[in-house]
Amino acid sequence: MFENERIINLGLEWFYNTLKKQGADVLNAKFSPPAGGDEEMIKTLTKISTFSEKVKEANDKALKMLNESRPFLVDVARAGDVIPGMKKNLILHAGPPIEWERMCGPVKGAVLGALVYEGLAKNLQEAEKIVESGDIEFSPCHHHSAVGPMAGVVSYSMWVYVVENKAFGNRAFCTLNEGLGKVLRFGANSDDVLKRLKWMEEVLAPTLSEVVKKTEGIDIKAITSQALMMGDECHNRNVAATNMFLKELLPLFLESAVSKTLIKEITDFISENPHTYLNLSMAACKSTADAIANIPYCSLVWAMARNGTDIGIRVSATGDEWFTAPAGMPKGLYFAGFDEEDANPDLGDSTISETAGIGANAMASAPAIVKFVGGTPEDAMRYTKKMYEICWGESRNFQIPYFNFRGTPLGFDIIKIVAKQTAPFINTGIAHKEAGIGQVGAGLLFASMECFTKALKKFAETIQPGNRQFEDKEW
């Protein structure tokens, strides 16, 4: 029946197996329809394809800007003095916009703790009454050139890293890292948590500010690049990067008038917290990603963030608009005494790391991270390889030794994400779902595809002829 005939089978493996059993010369070509066969999305992708040259030009421009960004730590300063729009009754939070009633337990816990820390309330009970009275305003960190890990709470008196992208002149901000476990960013708000924050405000941050100002800036991209060669991915593993940052600081401390006692106190704090570098890295990634906002026809993501209730993304061509979906639940490893029943859905602005080409995109550089977030070293390699399929290009600066120094996947492209039905991969910390408890583990998950399908629909509308507002934008 099949003599002298060659058959190509598309997709259905059982049909291929049946033909093979009958002696056919058959080649099985793996095939899946774009967008998982969703007719509406296929039509949307087809419309967008008519502008493919303009999209390519815009995305190439954005990728070039991401690669050319030069984030430097130039100062450590009080949030109220440097963050645009910051005021005493404003609390910044991670993720897309959210009102108090919809906030998850850890974010509420961090907000209440911040109000007591600021002296706006005597205790947590009074803080809750003040919030419910409407006297406190809330806004996403991302709306103020800032990012916040986990709950992401930033209040007026907290000090922040000031990172300047020297290639494009924009600045970004992030608070200093408190450590792991029972900390404000995971929703803990007890007296010991607030005492540590006051020490950071009164001792750690002013000292860092004093010595950093004596430099022309500390090159954060250079530290991150080297850290990837040393087993970090600079999201949930920052051991090498933290040590390199401390190496930059020590000569500055010794050349200053800072006492030896204080130098030891600060270096001990940094040395005991391998996540110190995370917040600095996040500010660097934010200053990098912000550079590609509002490029006409550009389909690359410039922000991805979670608030424990929602996950949201922003796309270059569609500007400041958020596209949201319910936050996902990470799978991972838990601290003793906790399990997935205790976990809150994913939260934090730290996915700015993946947006800028590190974090889960660079997990292949950090196979040891699986001891913290779960999985195997082979998983770490596989996740990074998968991200190449949905990114526009590769980093020139961040390289993976295990892939023969190939650049990390860079520039999440919503067109590729929807067409391939593959969402960005995230590694993350896990907070307890109740306020006041803190971190209970770390884990892994994919971002929600719903964000990207919503964004693609709006992107398709935005680039249609006749959209004068869009066409008049300058590059």
Fourth-level CATH superfamily of the largest domain? Enterococcus faecalis V583 domain
The helix-and-strand class reads alpha+beta
- Beta content comes to 15-25%
CATH architectural arrangement of the largest domain: Alpha-Beta Complex
Please bin the fraction of helical residues: 25-40%
The total number of structural domains is: 3
Distance between the termini: 61 Å
Mean pLDDT: 93
| Basic shape | globular
Low-confidence stretches: 468-475
Query: How are the strands ordered across the major sheet?
Result: 6-8-7-3-9
The name of the CATH topology of the largest domain is Enterococcus faecalis V583 fold
Main sheet overview: 5 strands, mixed
Total DSSP helices: 17
CATH class type of the largest domain = Alpha Beta
Radius of gyration: 23 Å
The total of beta strands comes to: 18
What does this structure look like?
The chain has 475 residues and is of the alpha+beta class. It has 3 domains: 6-31, no CATH class; 39-66 and 293-471, v583 fold (Alpha-Beta Complex), CATH 3.90.1700.10; 72-286, Enterococcus faecalis V583 domain (Enterococcus faecalis V583 fold, Alpha-Beta Complex). The protein is 38% helix and 20% strand. The chain is built from 17 helices and 18 strands. The strands form 6 sheets. It has a 5-stranded mixed beta sheet. Strands 12-11-10-14 form a 4-stranded antiparallel beta sheet, covered by helices on one side. A 3-stranded antiparallel beta sheet has the order 13-18-17. Helix 9 (239-255) runs antiparallel to helix 10 and helix 15 packs across helix 16. The protein is globular, with a radius of gyration of 23 Å. The termini are far apart.
